């Protein structure tokens, strides 16, 4: 089994083109990359977890070394240990993201010294794209096609039907 196993986590509520770009770039660095959808079952997300999972799986289906997993009620490092992950992958859009991520890295490293973290900076065209901004645009009936993979649009249509 390969030692080059990574884990990129987020809520992906919804996945954005920025997330997808980071996943595509990270997939080139690892023999196996897990995309972990983390959620809190006590909080209602924008999209149900199964819709998020379907949207992410469809968006990454062209990446043969990427597998989507969902998790709740456990720490990222605990899931990483179960999956044999050696490196956590995090995306950064700005200095605020770095400060936020560094606080998690501090605890992750103390809990699992064998797991390292790498940061990938967002490409310029995605720096201002976030799931929360996409949700706000949707709330006000705006077109989000420029910011999300088509799989998100499909899942949103499925949710409208339900």
Characterise the protein shown here.
By secondary structure, the protein is an alpha/beta fold. It has a single domain (5-161), classed as 3-Layer(aba) Sandwich (Rossmann fold), CATH 3.40.50.620. It contains six helices and five strands, in the order βαβαβαβαβαα. The protein has helices at 17-27, 49-59, 76-83, 95-111, 131-139, 150-161, and strands at 5-10, 32-38, 66-71, 87-92, 116-121. A five-stranded parallel beta sheet has the order 3-2-1-4-5, with helices on both faces. β2 (32-38), α2 (49-59) and β3 form a beta-alpha-beta unit. α2 (49-59) runs antiparallel to α6 (150-161). The chain is globular and about 45 Å long. It starts with a strand and ends with a helix. The model has no long low-confidence stretch (mean pLDDT 93).
Describe the strand arrangement of the main beta sheet, using strand numbers: 3-2-1-4-5
Task: Tell me the total number of β-strands.
Answer: 5
Largest sheet: 5 strands, parallel
Which CATH class applies here? Alpha Beta
Q: Give the overall form.
A: globular
Keywords, separated by commas or semicolons:
162 residues; alpha/beta; Rossmann fold; 5-stranded parallel β-sheet; 19% strand
